[in-house]
Design goal:
Blueprint: E1 2-7, E2 17-20, E3 31-37, E4 40-50, E5 62-68, H1 72-84, H2 89-96, H3 102-105, E6 124-127, H4 130-139, E7 146-150, H5 154-167, E8 173-176, H6 182-193, E9 198-202, E10 214-220, H7 237-248, E11 252-256, H8 261-268, E12 273-276, E13 282-286, H9 296-303, E14 308-312, E15 320-322, E16 347-349, H10 354-365, E17 369-370, E18 379-383, E19 396-399, H11 402-405, H12 413-422, E20 431-435, H13 441-448, H14 452-464, E21 474-480, H15 483-490, E22 500-505, H16 508-520
Parallel strand pairs: 6-11, 6-12, 7-9, 7-10, 8-9, 10-11, 13-20, 14-18, 14-19, 17-18, 19-20, 21-22
Antiparallel strand pairs: 1-2, 1-4, 3-4, 3-5, 15-16
C-alpha cells in the first residue's frame, strides 16, 4: 500500500510525496503521520491510498493520530483556498491544523460521519447594531447541529459566549482562538470531527475547523483587519467564509453596522439578501468644538444628558495638517509654515493628537476629560477604535474634525468614517453631533440615514477605474517594508492578475517603480494604501 502525503515542509513542489505503508501499520485517508524527508522527519497528512507507485522509495515512519484529523470537506476547502489565494495545498492544509503536542495528537481521529452535500444558499447581509446582530446570530442556531460564530477579537468571543450561556445554559459551546492551550484545542477538534453538536465562537481560524454537521456560519464585522491572515495561505476571512459555506451548503450571514461596498454590490445584483434594522441614531451637523455652545440643538440636548463622548481618528502630535486641503502627509520639519501640496499657510501641528484635543475640550467644557474608555468621568475622549470597550452609558457623541476626515485621500476612508460613526451606538449614544461647517454627500447620508447614493456613486467610480469589486487586483497595505523585497515578490508570475495582500505601506517613489514593472509586462497595477498612523 502506498500513502500519498502532503508534507508540513516548504518545498519547491506543491504535489504529494509517495511513501510505502509498512506491514502492520494501519493508516487511513486524512490520517496524520510522520515521514522521512531528506535528513529529517516531518509531519504529513495522507490524502490518498493507492496500490502502487514508481515514486515511493521510503516507508512511513509512524502514525501520529488515531485516525483522520481532517474531513473531506476541509480537504476540498484547502484546495479552493490555495487556488483563490495563490498558495500551496500543503500550506493551506497545515494552516487549518492546530499546533498540538504528541500526547494530544493521539486522541484525534475517531471515525466521523459522511458529509452530505447541500445546495449553496445566498448569503445574508445583516445591517444593524452589535446587540441586534448578536441576537440574530443566536436565533439561527440549531442545538442539534454544529454552528459557527466568527468574531474579530478574543474578548468579543468571550463576551458573546457569556451572553448566550445566560440565554440558554443548556447549550454546548466551544471557544477557538490563539490563546487556547494544546489540550483545549485537541478536545475541541475531536468533538467537532466526531460530529458532536456545539456552538463554536471563533476567530478567523475557526472557519477551517473539522465540522461534520455545520448548520450556519455567522461572521461579524467582515471588513475588520483582524480577518486578514499574514501567514500562508494569506487568506481573507470574508472570501474564505464564502468558500467554506459553498462546500458545506450552509447559510452564511455577514453582520455589520454598514454593508461593505462588495456586499452592497451583491445585494443589488441579487446575489445576497439584505436584512436591515431601523437606525435610531440621530445625527446632527454642528459647528466646531470651540463654538459648540452656540448651537441650540446641542445646548437643548446637553440639558437632558449626563455623559458626553468625544471621538475621531487620532495620530501623533509631530504631524502637520492642512486646514485648506486636508493633506496629512506634510513635512514634519519644526519650522514648516506652508502645505507641501496646496501651498496654503493654514496648517496646524498636532490637530489630531488626542492629548491636544483633550486639553482643548477641558478648556471649553471647564471639566476634567478622561482618555480611558472605562472611565466614569462625565466627559471621555477616545478614538473610534476603542468604542466597543466603553460601557453603554453615554448620551451624546461629538465627532471632532469631521470635515478634515472627509478629505483624506485614502481608498475606503469615507466608508470607514461612515461605519465608525454608526458604530457609536455601541456606546449607548442616541445623538451624534458632527463638527462640520459644510454639507457634503457624507453629512447628507448620515443626517438622512440614506446610504444608497453614496454606494451607487462609489460603485460607478470603481467600475470606471476598473477597481474592486469589478476586478481582481494586487493590494498593498500595512507596515513599512523594503523596496527590494517588494520588487522581488511583485516580479513573481503568480502575483499577476491575482488578489493577494502584501503588508507594506509604499511611498510615492515606490508606487511609481512598481507601476513601471507592471507597465513593462502590459499590466495595470492598482494600489490600496491605508494610513496605519490613525487609530
Amino acid at each position: 500500500m502506498i500513502a500519498k502525503c502532503l508534507l508540513r515542509q516548504k518545498t519547491s513542489k506543491t504535489f504529494t510525496f509517495d511513501y510505502f505503508v509498512p506491514v502492520g501499520l494501519s493508516v487511513q485517508r486524512y490520517s496524520l503521520v510522520e515521514v522521512p524527508f531528506m535528513q529529517k522527519k516531518v509531519e504529513a497528512v495522507v490524502v490518498d491510498l493507492v496500490n502502487s507507485s514508481v515514486f515511493a522509495k521510503r516507508p512511513v515512519s509512524r502514525k501520529l493520530s488515531m485516525g483522520p484529523v481532517i474531513t473531506s470537506a476541509q480537504h476540498d476547502i484547502a484546495g479552493l483556498i490555495a487556488k483563490e489565494f495563490f498558495s500551496s495545498m500543503p500550506s493551506a492544509i497545515f494552516s487549518f491544523l492546530p499546533e498540538l503536542n504528541k500526547k494530544d495528537l493521539k486522541i484525534l481521529g475517531k471515525k466521523s460521519s459522511p458529509r452530505k452535500l447541500k445546495k449553496t444558499q445566498k448569503p445574508i447581509i445583516l445591517t444593524a447594531d452589535f446587540e441586534f446582530r448578536l441576537n440574530y446570530y443566536f436565533g439561527k442556531l440549531n442545538k442539534e447541529k454544529q454552528n459557527l460564530i466568527v468574531l474579530p477579537k478574543i474578548e468579543d468571543l468571550i463576551q458573546a459566549e457569556k451572553i448566550l450561556k445566560k440565554l440558554d445554559p443548556s447549550i454546548k459551546t466551544l471557544l477557538w482562538h490563539s490563546q487556547l492551550n494544546s489540550k483545549q484545542k485537541a478536545v475541541a477538534w475531536q468533538e467537532l470531527i466526531t460530529g458532536k453538536p456545539a456552538v463554536v465562537f471563533a476567530t478567523r481560524h475557526g472557519l477551517f475547523l473539522p465540522f461534520v454537521k455545520l448548520n450556519s456560519i455567522s461572521i461579524d464585522d467582515p471588513g475588520n483587519f483582524a480577518y486578514f491572515e499574514d501567514q500562508e495561505p494569506k487568506y481573507n476571512a470574508q472570501v474564505a467564509s464564502k468558500i467554506v459555506s459553498s462546500v458545506y451548503g450552509c447559510p452564511l450571514i455577514f453582520g455589520d453596522s454598514l454593508p461593505s461596498l462588495e456586499a452592497y454590490a451583491w445585494i443589488k445584483s441579487g446575489k445576497a439578501i439584505q436584512i436591515k434594522q431601523q437606525n435610531k441614531l440621530k445625527i446632527i451637523r454642528t459647528l466646531d468644538l470651540s463654538n459648540i455652545f452656540s448651537d441650540e440643538n446641542f445646548v437643548a440636548k446637553l440639558k437632558k444628558s449626563k455623559r458626553i463622548l468625544l471621538t475621531g481618528f487620532f495620530t501623533n502630535s509631530e504631524k502637520f495638517y492642512c486646514l485648506n486641503c486636508g493633506n496629512v502627509a506634510l513635512s514634519t520639519a519644526p519650522n514648516a509654515s506652508v502645505c507641501d501640496k496646496c501651498a496654503s499657510i493654514k496648517i496646524k501641528k498636532g490637530l489630531l493628537d488626542i492629548n491636544e484635543s483633550k486639553l482643548s475640550a477641558e478648556k471649553i467644557f471647564e471639566k476634567k476629560v478622561s482618555t480611558d474608555p472605562l472611565s466614569k468621568e462625565e466627559i471621555v475622549i477616545i478614538p473610534f477604535s476603542k468604542i466597543r470597550l466603553t460601557q453603554k452609558t453615554f448620551d451624546i457623541a461629538i465627532v471632532l474634525h469631521f470635515d478634515l476626515y472627509a478629505t483624506f485621500p485614502y481608498l475606503n476612508f469615507e466608508y470607514k468614517l461612515l461605519k465608525s460613526i454608526l458604530d457609536l451606538k455601541q456606546a449607548g449614544v442616541d445623538t451624534v453631533f458632527l463638527c462640520s461647517r459644510k454639507t457634503s454627500r457624507l453629512t447628507d447620508c448620515l443626517e438622512e440615514n440614506k446610504f444608497d447614493n453614496f454606494f451607487l456613486e462609489e460603485l460607478r467610480n470603481r467600475r470606471s477605474e476598473n477597481m474592486p469589486p469589478f476586478t481582481r487586483i494586487l493590494e498593498f497595505t500595512g507596515n513599512k517594508d523594503s523596496l527590494n523585497k517588494l520588487e522581488s515578490i511583485i516580479k513573481q508570475e503568480s502575483w499577476f492578475g491575482g488578489r493577494r495582500r502584501l503588508y507594506s505601506l509604499l511611498s510615492h517613489t515606490e508606487i511609481k517603480k512598481l507601476q513601471d514593472i507592471y507597465t513593462q509586462r502590459g499590466m495595470i497595477l492598482k494600489l490600496r494604501v491605508d494610513p496605519p498612523e490613525f487609530t
